[in-house]
Amino acid sequence: MEAQSSPHLSAVSGTDSAFPERMPPSNLEAEQALLAAILANNHAYEKVAGFLQPDHFTDPAHARLFEACRTLIERGQLATAITLKNHFEQDGALADVGGAKYLAELQASYVNIVDVKHYGRIIHDLYLRRELIELGEDIVNKAYEHSLDSDALQQIEGSEERLYRLAETGLSEGGLQGFGNALSEAVGLIEAAYRRDGDLAGVSTGFTDLDKLLGGLHKSDLLILAGRPSMGKTALATNIAFNVARSKRVERDENGQAYEVPESVAFFSLEMSADQLASRILSEQSGVRSDSLRKGEINQEEFESIFEASRNLQNLRLFIDDTPAINIPALRTRARRLKRQHGLSLIVVDYLQLMSVPAGTRSDNRVQEISDITRGLKALAKDLDVPVIALSQLSRAVEQREDKRPQLADLRESGSIEQDADVVMFVYREQYYLERAEPVHRENEAEDKYQERYQRWQQRCEAAYGLAEVIVAKQRHGPIGIRTLAFEGDTTRFSDFIPDDHLPDAR
After folding, report:
1. Is the pLDDT of residue 98 over 80?
2. Number of other CB atoms surrounding residue 339 within 10 Å
3. How distant, in Å, are the alpha carbons of 34, 39, 57, 80, 253 from that of 115?
4. What are phi and psi of 486, to 5 degrees?
5. Residue 484 pairs with which residues in a beta bridge?
6. What does the alpha-carbon distance between residue 477 and residue 219 come to, in Å, rounded to a whole number?
7. What count of Cα atoms within 13 Å lies in the side-chain half-sphere of residue 384?
8. What is the pTM of this model?
9. Other beta carbons less than 10 A from residue 48's beta carbon
């Protein structure tokens, strides 16, 4: 196999001599040794079956021979020079290296079966190096192309995606695993919950009652947080993201010594800019009204509170990406990059109806596009092994009902949103609707009747003031229910709700 030199590489260098023609990296001896071991003892195949593929071999004859061995062994048949002889008698690729005689020579070659995995890793490593060379040439060649459908940033993201996939090749050996392995992971989660006094095994949302219902935010789960406009879904998502980012998890080294690791959060904001989100968090933590921050109407004491809060938040591992209409491939690439550099504990997407689909896959059916997006988010949660919270809009059907608490059927452009989600939560604030439903004096209505209605409305407003409901309408691994949180509208801050009868006696 000859290396193909790129004309663009020559154009960059100015001379062909600067890039002398080189053969792609390979090791035919390692390939021969591995095949010899498999032919001599088919159990050797099991040592490399999890990561080695036929296209990882440099020599086409070796690739076909490995594939034929794999086919026979996985059928429960014997793969030897004799059983493969008829299969390869008419194979031109094998004829070039000696045909059936070559098979016999391979099988007669002695190799220690213990070394088989080592040879397999050599073959796989050289395959990755060849792929890196091809990827590098593709990057250069595509950079010279000018396409309206793919700008430079999209080419970078596409290249990062290919590079990540290449890095993962052969590392995550999927497929069937023994029940003992799965059992060990389950016991590990139970142990983590036990060490936290049974509260939760996942990442804490920062809200006690919600954590008790959900058990925390679990790895690989897709959580949908939905609500009508002005219900506070972005505020709640921001609060959860902040609570996670300021917390730490306990890890143990190989000697069993415990140490703390800060949690990291990726917040993809398709609706608000990064500075707007930062202002929200500043308002929440400083206690200064968010509208006062926007207008600059603050006094010296409030300014000092903001400065102190900003200093405390400076090193928070909360990373914000405010790219509008981001698509799943770009989001996946950036999340993977963050996980490599800083670790990753949670991904928040605000919100999924504003996401786009990659060019070339767009459809006139928006419901189908949303379904593709939710499936992509669920796959991302499993791929990176982190919880993903995706915000979603609700249909206007909510406004037509007397009881405006959301239901699963209200999910806008639902498609597979409910199906793909592990958890579906709604944010509902009765105060919002009551404030817009002040009773008016009806024609010919007696004054006492009007006053009675007005007093009932006032009582409902007082009871609902500063409260929000988080309605868990679906939970794949646990119960559903409603949890009440306190909500401060001026600072868009959620907190644990403490009923009056649970407050300490001030006397």
Report:
1. no
2. 17
3. 8, 14, 17, 19, 30
4. -85, 145
5. 469
6. 12
7. 28
8. 0.65
9. 24
